From TrEMBL, chain A:
PANTHER family: ACYL-COA DEHYDROGENASE, ACYL-COA DEHYDROGENASE FADE29. It comes from the Bacteria. Belongs to the acyl-CoA dehydrogenase family. Residues 123-217 form the Acyl-CoA oxidase/dehydrogenase middle domain. This is Acyl-CoA dehydrogenase family protein. InterPro entries: Acyl-CoA_Oxase/DH_mid-dom, Acyl-CoA_Oxase/DH_mid-dom_sf, AcylCo_DH-like_C, AcylCo_DH/oxidase_C, AcylCoA_DH/ox_N, AcylCoA_DH/ox_N_sf, AcylCoA_DH/oxidase_NM_dom_sf, Mycobact_Acyl-CoA_DH. Its cofactor is FAD. The keyword DNA repair does not apply. Keywords: FAD, Flavoprotein, Oxidoreductase. Residues 11-119 form the Acyl-CoA dehydrogenase/oxidase N-terminal domain. The keyword Transferase does not apply.
UniProtKB/TrEMBL annotation, chain B:
SUPFAM superfamilies: Acyl-CoA dehydrogenase C-terminal domain-like, Acyl-CoA dehydrogenase NM domain-like. Residues 7-115 form the Acyl-CoA dehydrogenase/oxidase N-terminal domain. This is Acyl-CoA dehydrogenase family protein. The lineage of its organism: Bacteria, Bacillati, Actinomycetota, Actinomycetes, Streptosporangiales. Its cofactor is FAD. Keywords: FAD, Flavoprotein, Oxidoreductase. Residues 185-322 form the Acyl-CoA dehydrogenase/oxidase C-terminal domain. PANTHER family: ACYL-COA DEHYDROGENASE (PTHR43884), ACYL-COA DEHYDROGENASE FADE28 (PTHR43884:SF20).
Length: 374, 334
């Protein structure tokens, strides 16, 4: 057992140096606004030009074949440098990993390079008005058509969809009664004929997600991921990634926790808030070390990922709540900590609510009996 | 970088688990609480090399081996093994580092071999010596002085019946000088780390026994483990323990670096919270039976409450962590 990071220090130094020279001196506008989205897209292009947008991908798709440890180190440096949020994250952390597992060589070659370059920004299209925690209740359909499929129905809470280019999601291509069976995983353009995007304001009013209305939207066969009818299995491999290490790397919490300590000190180091500040810092360290453990075991999927998801999403809320409490009466004013707080509040809800995750932990890790279903 | 236990480290844990399972600790804990200080288990632990982990080679030990110490303390906690084990491990570091050549040469080989039971105290920090009536040696570290000590009066009644706490008074000076507080600081940190590992083991055992109970105990015609309210308590307990464990091993790996005290404190605060929350869940899920003296897991529940505040409270350790966090540039979360 060791924590020897010296082999990756040259890589860390290179990343740190590049970030010091390139991270914008003034923060970009919120990425959940039209202007901010464009600015963040431009930043993705800058990252890509330095081959830093998707370091862990193979070189042929725009990455540099970085090891999991190098990726964790990249993330630590990225957030420590105060670099902009990643507008591409749904694509690079979710869809791309699904494609690596289930995509055809043609799909990889067609989809990944523009994703890496920030040319195509992806939104996810999972939830529906009647299918939230119970995702398998989804009703939007994919019907066979000449050379492809026709999509119909409604998707909702589609993150980034207000300004994104394309989306990926699950559609019912078999009888509704089959629940997890008869689903197909498809990619589709958000500017296609028959797609209506209605931006939805999140808690702070910014259009961070959207409703999608699909009316006979044509999708060619080449944009089906995996086998038709096998979409649930394909999607669940993404769900493991989303809940685990890849979506919310330790680096972002380490950086936020360091800044929380600085904020606390700058506001007089109130002893009444000391335990909460310390706890956020300790938990960020715990998540970092858990990450090292996870990549040492080389399995970041399944029910273990649920333990991660509960932990980081609640840490994120607690950390930002503490920051707002330090800010006192100014906490309600627009600013970086408030935006981080609003963002954090979604964490225990998306990617499977924490209640669903706790059921999974109890049943699949601890071996408690499944609830008798009606 | 490979942040998982290697084969030999896992084997040490498995060996101790086997030994302690066979020893049947619940009965030993009750006998220890009644004043029966039989040393069969202590000697067996010595033969397995547990105490040698804190004693340097020149005094007949194999240490210091902090990762192995965490592995061992985790298993000792898992079985709630009685006796001043952490105190004896800390005493080894204290004797070794205090420039007390005579006492070190006399006691360290005996500690390493499992032939000496040692307790200790330190004014302000460790106010009462654990199991002082069972100890061959009691150390008292006070500023620049290291003393031997004797119990002063009977044990103070405490929640965990197997933790017999005695006020002590100094009798003979063993060493004086700046090495003493330095050694005492290292001993304190090692003890806090071992205590954190014990808490993780106690928590793990309580989670396991409570999951087992929830799978078999039936109410309303079904196992209570089917109910989400119960499931979520247990999932939370697991999550807390899973994220406290890497802090303990991370701290062990920073032994000897300036970060060691900070990392120990992070581990102790997190392990205390995780184990305590698990103990509360164990009590709640078991219901009234868990609240009884005669039900064995109650021994674990009481020990968790005691160790949560032993070797520094969570608040003490959180304060120590924050004092050690370096300044960063900004205070904005970008």
């Amino acid at each position: 057992m060791d924590l020897d990071l010296s082999p990756v220090e040259p890589f860390r130094a290179e990343v740190r140096d590049w970030l010091r020279r390139n991270v914008p001196a003034t923060p970009l506008p919120s990425l959940e606004t039209e202007a901010g989205f464009a600015a963040h897209r431009a930043w993705e292009r800058t990252l890509a030009a330095a081959r830093l947008s998707v370091v862990s991908w193979p070189e042929e798709y725009g990455g540099r074949g970085a090891s999991p440890l190098e990726w964790l180190v990249f993330e630590e440096e990225y957030y420590a440098a105060g670099a902009p949020g990643r507008v591409s994250q749904n694509g690079i952390n979710l869809l791309a990993l699904t494609l690596f597992a289930h995509g055809t060589p043609g799909q990889l070659g067609r989809v990944l390079p523009p994703m890496a370059a920030g040319e195509v920004i992806w939104a996810q299209a999972w939830s529906e008005p009647g299918a939230g925690s119970d995702l398998a209740a989804l009703r939007a359909t994919a019907t066979r058509a000449d050379g492809g499929w026709r999509l119909n129905g409604q998707k909702t809470w589609s993150s980034r969809a207000a300004f994104a280019d394309r989306a990926f999601g699950l559609f019912r291509s078999g009888p509704a009664a089959e629940r997890h069976r008869g689903l197909t995983y498809l990619m589709f353009p958000l500017d296609a004929d028959g797609v209506t995007v209605r931006p939805v304001g999140r808690l702070d009013g910014r259009p961070a997600f959207a409703e999608l209305f699909l009316d006979d939207v044509f999708v060619p066969d080449r944009d089906v991921i995996g086998e038709p009818g096998q979409g649930w299995t394909v999607a669940m491999s993404t769900a493991g990634n989303e809940r685990g290490l890849t979506l919310r790397s330790p680096g972002r919490f380490l950086a936020a926790a360091d800044r929380l300590v600085a904020l606390w000190r700058a506001h007089g180091a109130d002893p009444l808030l000391r335990d909460r500040v310390a706890d956020a810092w300790i938990k960020a360290r715990a998540y970092r070390l858990k990450g090292f453990e996870t990549i040492s075991r080389a399995d970041d999927a399944g029910a273990e990922a649920s333990v991660n998801k509960v932990f980081w999403s609640e840490l994120d809320v607690e950390l930002h709540e503490t920051a707002l409490d330090i800010l006192g009466a100014d906490a309600e004013l627009d600013g970086d900590w408030l935006e981080g707080y609003v963002f954090s509040l979604a964490g225990p809800i998306y990617a499977g609510t924490n209640e669903i995750q706790r059921n999974l932990i109890a049943e699949r890790v601890l071996g408690l009996p499944r609830e008798a279903r009606r | 970088m490979r942040f998982v236990l290697d084969t030999e480290q896992r084997l040490l844990g498995d060996t101790l688990h086997g030994l302690l399972t066979k020893a049947g600790t619940p009965a030993l804990i009750r006998r220890w609480a009644a004043g029966d200080h039989d040393r069969t288990l202590w000697s067996a632990l010595g033969e397995t090399g547990v105490f040698a982990l804190a004693v340097p080679e020149r005094h007949g030990g194999a240490g210091p081996l902090p990762v192995e110490l965490v592995v061992a303390a985790h298993e000792l906690g898992r079985h709630a093994a009685p006796g001043p084990i952490v105190e004896t491990l800390a005493a080894a570091a204290l004797l070794d580092g205090s420039a007390a050549a005579g006492p070190a040469a006399e006691w360290l080989p005996r500690i390493a071999a499992g032939q000496a039971v040692v307790s200790l105290g330190s004014p302000g920090r460790i106010r009462r010596a654990l199991d002082a009536d069972a100890a061959d040696l009691i150390l008292l570290a006070d500023g620049e002085h290291l003393f031997s000590a004797v119990p002063e009066g009977p044990a103070v009644r405490a929640l965990d019946p197997a933790r017999r706490l005695f006020p002590v008074r100094q009798v003979e000076r063993l060493a004086t000088g700046p090495a003493v507080p330095r050694a005492a600081a290292t001993a304190y940190d090692l003890a806090a780390l071992a205590c954190a590992a014990q808490l993780l083991g106690l928590g793990r055992a309580l989670l396991d026994v409570t999951v087992k109970y929830a799978r078999t105990r039936r109410q309303f015609g079904r196992p209570i483990g089917e109910f989400q309210a119960v499931k979520h308590h247990l999932a939370n307990a697991l999550t807390g323990l899973e994220f406290a464990r890497p802090l303990a091993y991370g701290a062990a790996l920073s032994f000897g670096s300036p970060d060691f005290p900070r990392d120990v404190s992070a581990a102790k605060a997190a392990a205390s919270d995780a184990a305590y929350a698990t103990a509360r869940t164990a009590l709640q899920v078991h219901g009234a039976i868990g609240y009884t003296d005669e039900y064995d897991p109650s021994l674990w529940i009481r020990k968790v409450r005691a160790l949560r505040s032993a070797w520094g409270t969570p608040a003490d350790h959180r304060a120590r962590v924050l004092a050690a966090v370096p300044e960063v540039r900004g205070e904005s979360p970008r």
